[in-house]
Amino acid sequence: MKWTLTIAALMTLTAGITLGALGRWEVLVICFFATALLLLCANLDQIAEISASSDGLRAKTRELVRQTEGAISELQMLAAQLAALGLSLIKRQGRLGGYSVPEEQRLKSDTLAVVARLGVRNEEIQSAMSEWHAVEEFDYVQSILGNSQIPRPISDHELAKEWKDLRNFSFGSAPDPSVLREFLKKHRLLDDDREALIQDYEFYRCNREHRRMHIWEKHSDWPPLVRSNT
Fold it and tell me: Is the peptide bond between 223 and the residue preceding it cis, with omega within 30 degrees of 0?
């Protein structure tokens, strides 16, 4: 099995489901057919003979039947999870809010567990996770800066301008924790709680996991920045 093609197939299916949830149904259909083709190409080296019969298409593999059935079972589990995700996205489109942090973590863990059991190398798994990490870093920065709530005092126009400039970045280009710390110190916005959040952000960038999950689960509710009087 060629894992590069398998990963490409899964990414194609995920993209199709996402675009389908946004109303691009023709793209969803194309992506499903493209996924099937990619999975077939990924398994060509496993097929020794293809023959037509009254029961349909039959493939005799070079590998043991038991191993093949195990791989198919894992792929079926992954397909079921992707289907559940796609249906959920379709149902949630146009509504306020998205997945909660526990729901996101469960979906991620279930998907990665199946991919790992399929034998995908860790390097490829981490590569597939790059977008996930980029979005998590984006949310860390935005939440540390008080989400969309303007820092107090709102009458400080210089503070408001620097705050807006710092929040203006795209996925994959989140500012370093040191940049956030320097900004907060400059404007007397850094307290112990905010310093702990920056340390959480530093930990995530180094370890690709959350230091305090119970705190991260509430990141959308982190309070606005307030200037210290001392």
Answer: no
- Cβ-based neighbours of 124, under 8 Å, separated by 6 or more: 3, 4, 7
| Dist CA 230 CA 174 (whole Å) | 30
Residues 6+ apart with CB under 8 A from 140: 174, 197, 200, 201, 204, 219
Q: How many CA atoms are closer than 13 Å to the CA of 37, on its beta-carbon side?
A: 7
pLDDT at 210 over 60: yes
The helix (H) or strand (E) run that includes residue 53 is strand 47-53
Report whether pLDDT(19) > 80. Answer: no
Question: What is the length of the chain?
Answer: 230
Contacts of 13 (CB under 8 A, 6+ apart): 31, 32, 35, 82
pLDDT at 121 over 50: yes
pTM for this structure? 0.66
The CA-based angle 26-17-129, given to 5 degrees, is: 140
- pLDDT, tens digit, 9 for 90 and up, residues 47-103: 544 544 444 444 454 554 555 666 666 676 666 666 566 656 655 555 556 678 898
